[in-house]
Amino acid sequence: LFRSHMQPNYRPSAPGSYDKEESLNANSASDRMKSKRVNERKKWKEQQGPCQKELYRTMDKLTKMQQRAGEEMYKFYIPNCNRNGFYHSKQCESSLDGERGKCWCVYPLNGKRIPGSPEMRGDPNCQQYLIAQE
């Protein structure tokens, strides 16, 4: 190529070498993309329903508990959410020992236990308690 055909800012470089300015631009672009993803995720979390928010808090708590040395977890509660981020009326305790956890009935909008509904292993038939509350 002749110099007259080259772009004005073109600087030939050896294979494997890089321009520091290009590297800095790539890093700042990467940082901007990461920041954008973090902000989008934060905004998405804020728009979730109450069950979904509780689920995130619970998962964070379980992760921290699991990281502590020597702490055994066999039974714990993880919210059961519908696709809109609200609660399924039947909520159950999870168990790592294979034993079936206890279940109870809640109001789908706030996750609060329905008064008078049983806590039992198995299906407490939450629909009848929801209908009785209407």
Please describe what this structure looks like:
This protein is α+β, with helices and mostly antiparallel strands. The chain is built from 3 helices and 4 strands, in the order ααββββα. Strands 1-2-3-4 form a 4-stranded antiparallel sheet. Strand 2 and strand 3 form a beta hairpin. The longest helix is centred in the first third of the chain and has 27 residues. The protein is flat and about 60 Å long. It starts with 19 loop residues before the first helix and ends with a helix.
Compute the number of strand runs: 4
Helix amount, in percent? Answer: 25-40%
The main pleated sheet reads as: 4 strands, antiparallel
| Approximate shape | flat
Unreliably modeled segments: none
Q: Count of helices?
A: 3
- Which class of secondary structure composition applies to the elements? alpha+beta
State the end-to-end CA separation.
82 Å
- Look at the structure and give the mean pLDDT: 78
Q: What percent strand?
A: 5-15%
Rg value: 27 Å
The string of secondary-structure elements, in order, is: HHEEEEH
Give the spatial strand order of the biggest sheet.
1-2-3-4
What is this structure, in a nutshell?
The chain is an alpha+beta fold.
Identify the notable features of this structure and list them briefly.
134 residues, alpha+beta, four-stranded antiparallel sheet, 3 helices, 40% helix
